[in-house]
Amino acid sequence: MLPLRRSIPSLGALATFEAAARLESFTLAANELGVTQAAVSRQIKLLETDLNTPLFLRAHRRVVLTPEGAALAATVTGAFGRMAEMIETIRQPLAPDTVTVRASLAFSHFWLLPRLADFRSLHPEVKLKLVAEDATGDLRKERVDLAIRYSRPPFEDGRSVADHRDEVFPVCSPALLERLGLEAATADPRSLPLIASDSVNPAWLTWKSWARSLGLDPALARASDASRLRFNHHTDSIQAAINGEGVALGWALLLSRLLAEGRLVRVGRTSLVPEDRYHVLVPFGREPSPACRALLDWIKECLESDA
């Protein structure tokens, strides 16, 4: 197969041909495209020369497609139509005065969304767009007004305007402990079914890395390797823990409401405070709008209340 650029004429020529074929007139095509009739004739002639095939029969004040021209017109019109549909599908609408926030799936699901109604009641005039992705991205190249990132400075693409530590410890459903006749404070995770994580993001601790950081018995790591339930995302691990499937590692800040509501309980007394922290980032070279500033102040207030 020939390279695309060598086998296909210019898109400009094809667009001119499509208009002329659809309208059956070089003059009408010129009016639609905003060029002269001579320019349309020249593009068509170049296309016919490139294909070594006549595409139109020139009649008095009108043009008629040749069989080859009709075949090409059907293909080009269909291709342009599919391109237009896909472009409209993926095009992001330009919404003025919208604050775009980027956060991980877990932070968005467990921390931001449960609190969002409070902000919207305080600032109903602010338009929000939430982008939940675990990929870090580059704030300098994206249409993002602020991001919540679990990491450590320095950051190449933004400045941290607020941060908050977190604490990691085992969690499970109280129903699981009740079923096994165990107390949350004294239960040993090694004696419970462990929900393991296969996340490739080093910021999300696994049982093995959590135990190693705390200098715990490697038996816990071996037990997690033998786990019969594994997930590649933290949100799924926590949902399984809520359902009573076993014990998962939980981040205190993210799960604060679930713990306060009693849907999850802390297992044992061992915990780890990682060096990574949640940072609220603003892109370099961009000052927050009043709407973005309102959201920033609200997030800071919420983080301080969770301290």
Automatic annotation (TrEMBL):
The keyword Transcription applies. SUPFAM superfamilies: Periplasmic binding protein-like II, Winged helix' DNA-binding domain. Keywords: DNA-binding, Plasmid, Transcription, Transcription regulation. Residues 9-66 form the HTH lysR-type domain. GO terms for molecular function: DNA binding; DNA-binding transcription factor activity. Belongs to the LysR transcriptional regulatory family. This is Transcriptional regulator, LysR family. InterPro entries: LysR-type_TF_proteobact-type, LysR_HTH_N, LysR_subst-bd, WH-like_DNA-bd_sf, WH_DNA-bd_sf. Signal peptide: none annotated.
